[in-house]
Amino acid sequence: AQPNWIQKISDVHAAIEESVRASGRPKPSYRWLKDGNPLLPQGRVQLEQGSLTIMNVSLSDAGMYQCVAENRHGTIFASAELSVIAVGPDFSKTLLKKLTLVKVGGEVIIECKPKASPRPTYSWKKGKDILRENERITVLDDGSLRIVNVTKSDAGSYTCVATNHFGTASSTGSLVVKDPTRVMVSPFSMDVTVGESIVLPCQVSHDHSLDIVFTWSFNGNLIDFDKDGDHFERVGGQDSAGDLMIRSIQLKHAGKYVCMVQTSVDKLSAAADLIVRGPPGPPEAVTIDEITDTTAQLSWRPGADNHSPITMYVVQARTPFSVGWQAVSTVPEIIDGRTFTATVVGLNPWVEYEFRVVAANLIGIGEPSRPSEKRRTEEALPEVTPANVSGGGGSKSELVITWETVPEELQNGGGFGYVVAFRPYGTVSWMQTVVASPDAAKYVFRNETLPPFSPYEVKVGVYNNKGEGSFSPVTVVYSAEEEPTRAPTTVLARSLSASDVEVSWAPPRENQHKGRVQGYEVRCWRHDEKEESAKRIRTVGNQTSTKISNLRGNVLYHLAVRAYNTAGTGPSSAAVNVTTKKPPPSQPPGNIMWNSSDSKIILNWDQVKALDNESEVRGYKVLYRWSRQSSTSIIETNKTSVELSLPFDEDYIIEIRPFSDGGDGSSSEQIRIPKISSAYARGSGSSTSHACTLSAISTIMISLTARSSL
C-alpha cells in the first residue's frame, strides 16, 4: 500500500533565534521541500527520517515547507508554514500586577511576562534602585521576581525591565506586606455524651485591614449552617472569633472538625476530634438456636458500644396476640454485657414468637436489634380452663350453659375444643358432650322432660391434639323457667301532678300461679293512642309501685301491669284509668317590690291568676341565695308577701314562683338585692327585666306579712 500519514506536520510560529522541529510518521523514504525547492541538510538544517530541525532560526527561514513520503506504491505530501517573529518587548497586554499582597514571613512571585521575540533579558528595580539578587531575592528564568521570607522592608514599588535586539520596555507594580494571621485559641478534642451542647473555639489575631473568613468542615465536608442549623451554629460575634456551637449532639456528630481561616494573604486551619458517647447500637444476628413448648434458646452478636461499655442485655418477644414488644423472663435472669446467649422461659405452647435484644450501658438504653425469624413453640396439653361458666334462661325445656372462650394463645395446640359436663343438682352421674369449635361459648341441652327452673351442676373442660386438660370449677345453673301465669291484682293509679302519676298493685298469690316473678312491667298509654305504642316501665324484685313521669297535663291515661321473668311476661292486669292534673299557672308573679329594715327584707308581689285550663294557685315559693353560692333556700307562703331575716353583708338573688296541684308554675325573673350600707332601702323588680332600682328612704316601711318557716 502507498504511505499513510500517522502524524502530519503543522504550522509553526517561531521567535527569531529559536530552534524548530517538524516531523511526520510514515515508514517509507522522506524528502523535504521549501517553497517547492528541495531542502538539503546543511549547517543549521538537520534532516533525520521524517523530522526537520532548524537551529537558531532567522527571518530567511520563513516559508512553506513540504514533507514528501514515498514508496513503490505511491507518494504523499504534507505541508506546513513556518513564520519567524522578531519584535521588541511589549507590556501593553501583560502589565505587572498593580498591587500584590503578601504576609510577613511568606513567599511571593511577581510575574513579568512581556511579549518579545527573541526572548529578552530581565532586570528589576525597587523604587529607583537596581535590585540585587541574594539568598532571599531571585529572578527566575521566565523573568519573574521571587522573594522568600518576606519582611516589612520588602514593601514598595517594583519595576521589571525587559531588553532584546529590538528594544527595551518596563512595567511597575506595588508590593504590600501584611501581618500574618495566627490562631490564638484553637479547637480542642472533646469527649461528650449524646444530648449535650458544646462550643469549639477558633479565635485568631490578624491584620485588621484585611477581610477574614471562617469556615468549618466536619469529616472533610464543609458545614452548611443554613441546612444544618438545627445542630450547628457560628457564634462569637467578633471578626476575630469563629467559634462553632454544636447543639443536642447525636452519635452521628462524632469525628474530625477543622476550623479554616482565610484572608487575602494567608490561609490556616486548626482541627479537633469529637468523641460522642451514647447508648449502645442495636445487637446483631439474633438467632433462635432451639425451641421447646415453653422455652427458646437465643444467641446474638454485640453491636457498637458507642464509647461506653455495654452493661446488660434485655430480651423482648412479640406474638400475633401481644400488644407490641414485651419483656420476657430469661435464664440467666440478668444478662450482663459479656453474655451473648440466653434461654427465654415461660412461653406459651403452640404460639408463634419472634425475639429481639436491647443493649444498655451507663448512658442509656440503645435501639433494639432487628427481629429474629418467627418460630412456633411446640404443642402441649391445655392448662387454662374456661372462665365465668354460667348460664340459665332460654326457652322451655332447655338448659343453657355459657362460658368465656379460652384465648388462642392459651390453647396450647391445634384441634382445640370444649367438653361440657352437667348433672341434676345432688345426683352422681355426669352427662357429657363435646363442642369441637374453639370459638364456641355456649351449649344448649334440650329435653322435654327437663323440669323448669331446676338446678344443675355444670363444668366445662378443654382438649387439643395432645389430649384432655382439666375442668373448670363446678357451678350451679338453672334450667329455663316458665312465664308467670297470673296477673297482678288490685291495680290503683292516682295523679300526682300535671306530669306525674303513681301506680300500685298487689302481686299474684304464690299458690295460684306458676313461674318465678323477677319484677313487673307497667304499660301506660294515652286515651288517643293504641295500646301497642304504650310507654313501658320495669321494676325489679318485690317493688309493687312506681311513678311515671313526663306525661301531659289534663290528659286521660290507661295503665296495665304484668309480671315478668327470664322466660317472658305473664298475662296483663285489667287496665285502669287516671287523668293527670291541670298544668300549673303559666304566668309568673309580677310587680315585685322589696323593702329592707335592719336585717330584714320584705317582699311583695301581685297575685297570679290561673287560666281556665290551669290548676288553681295554692301558694308561692320564694327561692333565695347568696350571689356567690349555688345552693338555694326555699320558703313557702299562701300570701303575696314574705319577710326574710337575712344579713345585709352579701348580694342576694331572689325569684318567686306559684305552685298548684299541677306542680310549680313559671318563675319570675331573678331579682338581685345588692349589699346594703344604709339602714333602710327600697327596690323593685320586674318579671320581665333583671334591672333593679335602689333608693334610701328616711321613713320606716311597715308591712304586715305572714311568715312561714323553711
Descriptive notes:
GO terms for molecular function: cell-cell adhesion mediator activity. It is found in: Cell membrane. Pfam families: fn3 (PF00041), I-set (PF07679), Ig_3 (PF13927). The protein has 710 residues and is mainly β. It folds into 7 domains: 80 residues, Immunoglobulins (Immunoglobulin-like); 87 residues, Immunoglobulin-like (Sandwich); 96 residues, Immunoglobulins (Immunoglobulin-like, Sandwich), CATH 2.60.40.10; 94 residues, Immunoglobulins (Immunoglobulin-like); 92 residues, Immunoglobulins (Immunoglobulin-like, Sandwich), CATH 2.60.40.10; 92 residues, Immunoglobulin-like (Sandwich), CATH 2.60.40.10; 81 residues, Immunoglobulins (Immunoglobulin-like). The protein contains no helices and 63 strands. The strands form 16 sheets. A 5-stranded mixed sheet has the order 1-8-7-3-4, with no helix packed on it. A 5-stranded mixed sheet has the order 10-18-17-13-14, with no helix packed on it. The protein has a 5-stranded mixed sheet with strand order 20-28-27-23-24, with no helix packed on it. Strand 17 and strand 18 form a beta hairpin. The N and C termini lie far apart (140 Å). The relative contact order is 0.05.
